[in-house]
Design goal:
There is one protein chain. This protein is α+β, with helices and mostly antiparallel strands. It is 44% helix and 25% strand. It is built from six helices and eight strands. It has helices spanning 2-21, 25-44, 51-61, 160-171, 178-192, 195-213, and strands spanning 64-67, 72-75, 79-85, 97-102, 105-113, 116-122, 129-139, 142-149. The strands form two sheets. Strands 1-6-5-4 form a four-stranded mixed beta sheet. A four-stranded antiparallel beta sheet has the order 2-3-8-7, with no helix packed on it. Strand 2 and strand 3 (79-85) form a beta hairpin. Helix 2 (25-44) runs antiparallel to helix 6 (195-213). The two termini are 36 Å apart. The relative contact order is 0.13. The model has no long low-confidence stretch (mean pLDDT 82).
Length: 221
């Protein structure tokens, strides 16, 4: 949850910076809409768990807890499949292997495996999953987490953060060129925005193209 809040805060700072460079009213309106949306998302993030409560939870588990960082994943038309290797996990009682699903996250907890507890958390999944249709399977030395897709479409990665990271690596805009940075942000906002956001950006784009065809300032939206 802390990572999600941090990413939203970074997005907000980026939008604020672009607002200082934008001069056109329509573009400033679009950026202000995105700014308010991000501020609302940050406000609605659940508060971090108090440290003493977290410590109490760990003490109830017994032993010490290891965070799982290594995994493999695959997908079919209906499922996202995450494979977690844990030696001897098949010997545990089924109730010691727990997965809690939400529409955009899941938490895996494996209790008392060779005197240790193992946890793995995925927040901000790339697309919504069906809580009721998701499950876990215990195989030899492996836990298979199966997230049922709400829509049968291909995922290019597991989380929204991964997607944004890949986009920045592949086509990170040069902040020394404000117009290029604004265009890239608008494309991102269009891809992720709701219908109202798409209509606003489309209208700005059409007006820009009309100006361009008349020989006025091109691509100034």
């Amino acid at each position: 949850m802390a990572a999600a809040r941090e990413e939203l805060q970074k997005d907000l700072e980026e939008v604020k910076e672009l607002l200082t460079k934008a001069t056109r009213k329509r573009l400033r309106d679009v950026l202000m809409t995105e700014k308010h949306k991000l501020e609302l998302e940050i406000k609605n993030q659940p508060p971090p768990k108090p440290k003493d409560a977290a410590e109490e939870e760990k003490s109830l588990l017994g032993g010490y807890t290891v965070k799982i960082n290594n995994y493999a994943w695959d997908q079919s038309d209906k499922f996202i499949k995450i494979y977690v290797s844990l030696n001897g996990v098949q010997k545990l009682p089924p109730e010691n292997v727990l997965v809690n699903f939400t529409e955009r996250s899941f938490d895996l907890l494996v209790k008392n495996l060779n005197g240790k507890n193992y946890t793995m958390t995925f927040n901000n999944l790339l697309k919504p999953v069906s809580v009721e249709g998701s499950s876990r399977k215990i195989k030899t030395d492996t836990v298979l987490v199966m997230c049922r897709k709400k829509r049968e479409e291909k995922w290019e990665c597991l989380t929204q953060v991964e997607k944004e990271s890949k986009e920045k690596e592949k086509a990170a805009y040069d902040t020394s060129d404000p117009s290029e940075g604004l265009m890239n942000l608008l494309k991102k906002m269009y891809a992720e925005g709701d219908d109202e956001m798409k209509r606003t950006i489309n209208k700005a784009w059409v007006e820009s193209r009309e100006k361009q065809s008349k020989g006025e300032t091109p691509m100034d939206i």
